[in-house]
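A brief tutorial aside. Many learners find it easier to grasp structure tokens once they have seen a single protein encoded end to end. The record that follows does exactly this for Ferredoxin. Read the sequence first, then the structure, and try to relate runs of similar tokens to stretches of the chain.
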Amino acid sequence: MSVQKTAKVHLADDSQCFDFNTGCPSLLDCLEQNKLTVPYQCREGYCGACRATLIDGTVNYNQEPLAFVREGEVLLCCCKPNGSITLSFK
């Protein structure tokens, strides 16, 4: 029997924290499941509309995004946390 690890997702802007469900395909889906409204367009890493600042931690991309991603930023639609992370939407 394998044990699925969960990661904590902290939101710096409003001090919310929740568990990342290991069954979620992306951070965007997980945020939506937790009733958070996040801007997005393509859900594929093409447009960059779901861009957020990664304050702490690291992520793994499901596929390499085509949109430009600056150092310290992530595209929520195509990544998952690699352990606990802190995000900001400012």
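Self-check: The chain is about 10% helix and 30% strand. If you spotted this yourself, you are ready for the next section.
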